[in-house]
Amino acid sequence: MKAMSKFGSSRSRGAGPASAAFVACLACFAAHAQDYPSRPVRVVAPSAPGGGFDLVGRVLAQKLGEQTGQAFVVENRAGAGTLAGTQIVARAAPDGYNLVVGGLSNIALNMGLYREPGYDSLGDFTPIGLVVSHSYTLVARKDLPLASLKEVIDFARANPGKLNIGTGGLGSGQHIGAAIIGALAEVNMVKVPYKGAQPVYQDLLAGRLDLFYDNTTTTRPYVESGQVRALAVSSRARAPNMPQVPTITETGVLDLEMETWFGLFAPARTPRAIVERLRAEVDKATASAEVRSRLEMGSGRSLRMAPAETEMFVKAEVAKWTGLLRRAGIQPE
């Protein structure tokens, strides 16, 4: 009994300072979380104004500001695709006052597109929450004499290089989607690079371009007006506003599901208590029908996942797209 008493006494004396420091640290984090945010929070959108990153950043910033009584300020940091803005937050202080809008492009695709992206999506960031996902739609010029994705693939196989497809900026969903469709279907279509979607539509509507793989929100007005013809959507389920258009998987030609998703991410070492506070605020924000409507832009799908599910999803997306990029023959730069 004395030995046990002595051992216990010795252990208590050795652990005392460390234990006290640990408790003090926890109390400090709790106090920071309770006071958080006490000053403006920077939300970096790694793109120019307009587009998905910017929209998600501004919708969430406005709502989070209303909920917390502190400003959430969107800062557009475009450059090198989405690399520049994402790198800034990866290197920023992990104090809850530096956040980035993360999406398919900068969190998943960049890991397979660049040898040295300047950050590790899984090691340098903690997901706060994913809030919305948008499908892509493969569209054709309205007078293309091929009525389905199957007909397009069959024709492309029989006539290598006879069809062309517009692609957006390097590393964009438009660019990656076009490359992966060609690789998985084992067809040779001429890829025509553009700097943005608008010039693609100018050539598509004029009949100078055959195909384009673009965000469903952008393609929908052109489809509804009859200016282009929709062949397939990339999501798991059909787009609610275009129920007549089959999914790529439904066509039986390819097994491909691709959605561009967005959410908020914090530097990996951000205190857990602050991460949990942010997660609660984002979840509260996305419970608002007005916020969901603004994020969906008419064609999107709202996301509300538990933290563990979100982390699993992000890891799976990084692994999936890194592998698919290799299959498509896209080597990291």
Plain-language structure description:
The protein is α/β, with parallel strands linked by helices and 333 residues long. The chain has two domains: 34-134 and 260-327, 3-Layer(aba) Sandwich (D-Maltodextrin-Binding Protein, domain 2), CATH 3.40.190; 136-233, D-Maltodextrin-Binding Protein, domain 2, CATH 3.40.190. It has helices at 2-35, 52-68, 83-90, 104-113, 121-124, 149-158, 173-185, 197-205, 216-224, 272-286, 289-296, 307-327; strands at residues 41-45, 72-76, 98-103, 125-141, 164-167, 190-193, 211-215, 228-233, 259-267, 301-302. Strands 1, 2, 3, 4, 5, 6, 7, 8, 9 and 10 form a ten-stranded mixed β-sheet that branches. It is globular and about 65 Å long. The relative contact order is 0.17.
Number of strands: 10
CATH topology type of the largest domain: D-Maltodextrin-Binding Protein, domain 2
Instruction: Quickly give the CATH architecture of the largest domain.
Output: 3-Layer(aba) Sandwich
Task: Tell me the series of helices and strands, N- to C-terminal.
Answer: HEHEHEHHEHEHEHEHEEHHEH
Number of domains: 2
- Distance, first to last CA: 67 Å
Structural class: alpha/beta
Task: Pick out the low-confidence regions.
Answer: 1-15
Number of helices: 12
CATH superfamily of the largest domain: Bordetella uptake gene, domain 1
